[in-house]
Amino acid sequence: MADKTPRLELDNVQRVFDGTPVVDGLSLQLHAGQVTCLLGPSGCGKSTTLRIAAGVDRQSQGRVLVDGVEVSAGHHHLPPEKRFIGLMFQDFALFPHLSVADNVSFGLAGFSKAEKAARVTDLLTRVHLNDFGPKYPHQLSGGEQQRVALARALAPRPRVLLMDEPFSGLDNRLRDGIRDETLSLLKEEGTAVLLVTHEPDEAMRMADQIALMRAGRIVQMGAPYNIYNSPVDREAAAFFSDINVIHGVVRNALTETPFGQFLTPSMVDGADVEIIIRPQHLKMDFDRDGRGPNPTVSDGVPARGVVRRARFMGSESLVEFAMDHDGSTLCATVPGVFLPGQGTALWLTFRRDRCFVFPCRNQSRVASPYISDQAG
């Protein structure tokens, strides 16, 4: 039977600065071969969490365990070099006075000369830098430096690899390819990875598991598909994509909107609610009968809007509407080119199984936010 012991575990970790918790009761487990992304806005505690796991910062309370063994708890605190944890930084932190080969072999203490040479050759081959061993960091491009930093971090075969915004310094044209190459190598090595990022696209591309952070806490954790399609609240939905917000009031377990009634049995009567729909799930029609540029299965009542502006975004078009019922703005996207002129009237509908309903921010949610099987 496979060992289920987490490679890395943070147990109820808190970090307080000047009386303010920056990390607040955070618990997290990483397993071998798993990539977990700490995702959230700047200042939410991601990098502090990473530093606590590495041992370069110390939690105010809670425990850090590697392979089930406490490395930091109470008065016991192992330094970073004794945790079998690898680190990879935003700026790559390569040693400028060492060659590429010497950078990669730097952490291979206790290895024989032959073992070091074999490990360096293997890793440089796997990151497609076979002939770069004699070169120095200043002779490399940003993408090449990133791959050397990855090889150096993996050389000692760490149990856990911690990565802090490792792709942020790369040109956008290189980033996706480097991410894919990095992910492939990490999976081959079977390393447990904790990756810090503020970019949802990066987390979706890289992660087996996303831990969405806000104000020092994990507010939602799960596979990328589940995080995206079942957000815990409005802020979680908005973090991954643009959203449209439609307001309503619950009456007898129903919420009346210009798009028809929504079943909201989990909400208190009289509660103000927000119905969230992503732009790609709005359907645009030239008339109420469904003749439009992006036919989909939809339900409910069509609502009329007037085009404010339309823009081609490369792979899709974005159309912004002023809605007849209250003048509010809704945005819809459609693949390809669709650029109706300003002032064009269109009818909007959307699928009820692609939207979410939450109480307004000053109220508490009673049950799951996901709307499905609605009556129109």
Radius of gyration, taken over Cα atoms and rounded to an integer in Å? 25 Å
CATH class of the largest domain: Alpha Beta
**What string gives the helices and strands in order?**
EEEHEEEEHHHEHEHEEHHEEEEEEEEEE
Largest sheet report: 6 strands, mixed
- Total individual domains: 2
Query: What is the overall number of helices?
Result: 8
Number of strands: 21
What is the CATH superfamily of the largest domain? P-loop containing nucleotide triphosphate hydrolases
Q: How far do the termini sit from each other?
A: 51 Å
CATH-scheme architecture of the largest domain: 3-Layer(aba) Sandwich
Q: Order the strands across the largest sheet as they lie in space.
A: 7-8-9-3-10-11
Proportion of residues in β-strands = 35-45%
Average pLDDT rating? 88
Task: Assign a percent range to the helix content.
Answer: 10-25%
Characterize the structure shown.
With 376 residues, the protein is α+β, with helices and mostly antiparallel strands. It folds into two domains: 8-235, P-loop containing nucleotide triphosphate hydrolases (Rossmann fold, 3-Layer(aba) Sandwich); 242-359, OB fold (Dihydrolipoamide Acetyltransferase, E2P), CATH 2.40.50.140. 21% of the residues lie in helices and 35% in strands. The strands form four sheets. A six-stranded mixed β-sheet has the order 7-8-9-3-10-11, sandwiched between helices. Strand 5 and strand 6 (76-77) form a beta hairpin. The longest helix is centred in the middle third of the chain and has 18 residues, at 172-189. The radius of gyration is 25 Å and the shape is globular. Mean pLDDT is 88; it is low at 364-376.
